[in-house]
Amino acid sequence: MGKKFQAQGRLSKNAKTFMSA
C-alpha cells in the first residue's frame, strides 16, 4: 500500500481521484 500510495501521490490529479474513490 505504501508503494502504491506514493506512486499516486506523484500525480496530484490521480491522487485526488484515488482518495475520492
Automatic annotation (TrEMBL):
Location of the region described as Disordered in the Swiss-Prot/TrEMBL record: 1-21
Feature: compositional bias, Polar residues: 9-21
Recorded superkingdom: Eukaryota
Stated name of the protein: Uncharacterized protein
